[in-house]
Amino acid sequence: MEYTIEHGIEILERTPFILQSFLKNLSDTWTMCNEGENTWSAYDIVGHLVHGEKTDWTQRLEIILSDDTNKTFTPFDRFAQFESSKGKSLNVLLEEFKVLRKKNLEILKSLDIQETQFELEAIHPSLGKVTLKELLAAWVAHDLGHIAQISRVMAKQYKHEVGPWQEYLTILHR
Question: What is the pTM (predicted TM-score) of this model?
């Protein structure tokens, strides 16, 4: 599928509501579990998404679109949620994500980006040159990846409980 702003926004607008529908008011038994050492729970993932809304997507978008000669992105701390989420409930994080995403989509829409701008470039600290189109498509894929990750982490909590059905439940083997 070719990336378009309209199709991207369809997903980006829905993500906060998907997560709220899926996770709001669930017990910690579901939302704080992970897949083992150095893996993330649903709570951690939502905290990561909040941090991204604060420090990543629209900031990088503005760098690419700027007239500045230095178009190098600041490195993104993929683990900042462990500190920034401390003391917050999952419901608070879900609401924060919803508010931040709404604001960021308003920014995106107000920029009135044209396809002729899709090839504008910036420098990612580890990936090198990236285009505006790649950044915007990555934002969508990032959301979908974390929605899938949350589902996988939660499904694996019943990996042994499903008995012989484990063979048919591919989500339990990823």
Answer: 0.95
